[in-house]
Amino acid sequence: MAKRSGTVGFSKYRKHPAALSVILFLGLIVTSGVYTLGANAANEYARSSVDAAAIMNDPASIDAGKRLFATGCATCHGLNAQGNSDGPTLIGVGAASVHFQVSSGRMPMASPGAQVMRKKPQYTEEQTLQLAAYVASLSPGPEIPTAAQLNWAGADLAEGAELFRANCAQCHSFSGRGGALTEGKYAPSLMIATPQQIYEAMITGPQAMPIFNDQTLNLEEKHGIIAYIEYLKDSPNPGGFELGRYGPVTEGLFLWTIGMGALLMVAIWIGVKAK
Amino acid sequence: MSQQVTRGAVDKSIDGTVKYLDDRLSTSGFIKRNIKKVFPDHWSFMLGEIALYSFIILLLSGVYLTFFYKPSLVEIVYDGSYLPLKGIKMSEAYASTLEISFDVRGGLLMRQVHHWGALLFVAAITVHLLRVFFTGAFRKPRELNWVIGVGLLVLAILEGFAGYSLPDDLLSGTGLRIASGIALAIPVVGTYVSFLVFGGEFPGLDFIPRLYTIHVLLVPGIMLALITAHLMMVWYQKHTQYPGPGRTNENVVGYPLMPVYMAKAGGFFFIVFGFLVLVSGLVTINPIWKYGPYMPDQVTAGSQPDWYIGWLDGGTRIMPNWEITVPGMFTLSPNILIPAVVVPGIMFTLLALYPWIEQWITGDKRIHHILERPRNNPNRTALGVMSLVFYGFLWISGGNDIIAQMLNLSINDMTRVIRVLIFITPPIAFIITKRICLSLQHKDRERLLHGDPTGRLLRLPNGEFIEVHEPLSDEVKAILLARTELPMLTPPAEVDANGVKTPNLWVKKLQHRLNRWWYVDQVPMPTAAELTAAKAHTLHELEDAQERGIEIAKDLPSPTKSH
Known about the structure:
The complex is a heterodimer.
Chain A: H1 19-40, H2 52-57, H3 59-72, H4 74-77, H5 95-103, H6 125-138, H7 157-167, H8 169-172, E1 179-180, E2 186-187, H9 195-204, H10 219-233, H11 248-273
Antiparallel strand pairs in A: 1-2
Chain B: H1 7-25, H2 28-35, E1 38-39, H3 47-66, E2 75-77, E3 89-91, H4 92-102, H5 107-134, H6 143-165, H7 170-185, H8 190-198, H9 207-237, E4 255-256, H10 257-282, H11 288-291, H12 307-318, E5 324-326, E6 330-332, H13 334-362, H14 378-398, H15 400-407, H16 411-450, E7 452-459, E8 465-470, H17 474-480, H18 505-519, H19 528-547
Antiparallel strand pairs in B: 1-4, 2-3, 5-6, 7-8
C-alpha cells in the first residue's frame, strides 16, 4: 500500500477497519464508568441512633405518627390505614413491618411496579418510629425487635450458614447478593440490609418473602442467620477478586471478554511480529 | 517461499540437535525431514494452540489435585480451617476439596488454575472451530480431522461437566440433579439409565467415585489419543494457508518448524500458562466454600452451569412445560427431552456432518489447501452466523435470572421474547450475512477492475472531474483473485440412455435445487479480458495526468514501470 502524505499521529488510523469498534468500545467504557460512579454514590444507608423503646412507648408518638401518616401515607393506605384501591390495609401489620418498609426507603413508594425498590429513606429514624407507633396503636402485630433480640454476638456461625442455605439461599442466593423471581420481582441483595431490617423482614415477610416466625426459626437460629449474613458482608476473599459473587455467569463473561480477549491479542501480536 | 530467516543460522541450529539425537538414536533421516517442515503463518492458526496448551495445563494441575482429592460420598463431620462450615456434615469429596482450598499449600491456586483452564480450554476449542468453519479448512481432504475436532469438543464439554460435579458442593449437586432428570426423561429406559448411572436412587453413594474414574482416566485418555491423531493429521496433510502471492494448492509458504515455530509455539505456551496462573491468582472461580455441601433439599438462586453447558441449560429454561402422560403406562417429558437431548443431538450431528453436507450441495470434490475467505462462500458464512445467533439465544437464556436481575427485567418476559426471537432472528441473520458477503464480493470485483480510490480528484481540460484510482498491490491482487468459481451441477436426467428411470430421482433433484440456490447469486469473477481492459484504463488515466505535469500519484509506482 502506498503511504498517504501529510498524515500525522492518530489520523493515519482513522480509516482502519477497527477504528469504529475501538471508538465505540472506549465510549462505552467511559459512559459506564461515569454511570457506575454516579449510581453508587446514592445507595448509602446511615441511621442516627435513637432510643427506640422510649419513642415507641411515648403516647405523643402516636399523634405525631398519625400526622405524618396523613400527609405521607394516607393517599394509598387510606386516612385510617384501612387501605384503598392503591394500597393494602396496614391494620395489624405491626411496628416491625412499618420500620422495615420505611427505614429501607421502600415506603413511601416512588412508583408502582413489579417490586417496591429499596432507596434512600425519606424519614428520620425518629419519624419512622412515630409512624410505627401509630400503626401499632391500631391493632397489635409484630413488634420492633428489642436490643436483646438483636444481640446476635454469641451466634453459631456454621449453623447459621446452614440455615441460610436451607431457608434463604434459594431466593437471595448462596452469597446473599439476591436473585431474580417471577414476573420482574426479585429477592434483594442482603449486603446493605442492617441486622434489624433482616430480623424485621424475617418476622413480617415483606413482598414475596415468607414469614419466618419463632416456630419456624427460633431466636437463636435467627441470630445464626444474621451472623452469617454479617459474615458474608465482609468475608475474606481467599481466591481473589470475586466478580460480584454471581457464580458461573460472571466467570464465563470474564473468561470470554478479558481472558480470551487478552490471549487473542497476544496471538495477533505474535502473528504481526512475524511479518 | 518467503524465507526470512538466515539459512546458515537455521541449518546450524538444526544440525546441532539432529547430530545429538542421531549419535544416540540414528534418527537423522526422520528428524531432518520433519524438523524443517514449513508451516504457514497467521495469528488465527494459533487458536487451536491455546486449546492444546490449556489441555497440557489441565493435565498438570489435575494431577496435583488428585493427590489430595477423595472421591467418596461417605459422610463425615468437617473439622478443617474454614470456620463457617466447622462441625457441618458433608461428604469426604467436599471436605477434601475444602482441604485443597484452605489447607493444602498452593491448593486453591491449583484448583483455580484447573477451573479457569477448563473454561479456557472449551472456549479455545470453540474459537478454533469457528476459524476452521468460516475459512473452509474442513474441506477435502480434512473432513475426518474435522470430525475428530467435533468429537474433542463434545468430550471436552462432558469432561468439564464431570469436573464441575466432583467437588460435591451445592452447585455440583444441583447440576447432577439435572443430569439425572435428563436421564429420567429418556422414554421407556430413562429410569433404568438413571439407576444404572447413579447406582440406585439419586444421589446415592456410587456416583462421585464413578465420575472420578471417568474424569481422570477414561475421558482424558480418549482425548489425548484424539488430540494426537488430530495433530498427526495436520502434520501429514500439511497446514492450510490463506491465499496470497506465491501460495498455491501445491505448496506451503511459511517458516520452518525449527527454530521459528519452536520459538513461537514455546513462547506462546508460556504466555498461556503464565496468563492462566495470573488470572487464577487474582480472580476467584467457583468459591465452593460459599456454596456449602450438597443437600438434596437445598438449592441456591443463580445456580448455573459453566459457560459451555449454559446453552443446554438455557434451552431447558425457555422450553414450554410440555408433559404427556400415557394413561396407565408412563410419562413422556418432551419439556426436558427436546432441549437437553434432541436439540444438542441434532446440532452436534449437523456440525460433524457439515463437510459432507456442503460437499453434497456444491459437488465440490476437489482437494483444498488454500483457505476460503468467508465472503467467498456466502451461504456457509451465513449458515455459521445463523447457528451462532441460535446458540446465542440459548446461551443468554442459560443466564436469564442473572441478566433479569442486572437489567431489571422480568424473567417471564425474557422467556416469552426469546421463544419468538430464537426462531425469527436466525433466518434474518442468514439473509443479512449473505447480503454482506455478496456486497463484499462486489467490492472485490470493483477493486480488481478499477483499483483503490485515492481520494484525489482530477479536473480534466473539458471540465470533467475524475477520481484517480491506484492499482492494487500484487499481494492484494493475489488474495482477491484466489476465489474460484465452480460450475453449477447439471440437472439430473429423468431417464438414462436406455430409458431406465434414474433411481432416487427426488434426491438428485433436491441436490440440484440446493446447488442452484447455493451459487445462483454469487458475483462473477472478472474475466481475463475484463482485467486486461481495466488495467489499460487505469494506466491510461495515470499517464494522462503525468503528461500534464500533475503530480497526482507521486507515491505510487510509476505507471510505466507498473505491469
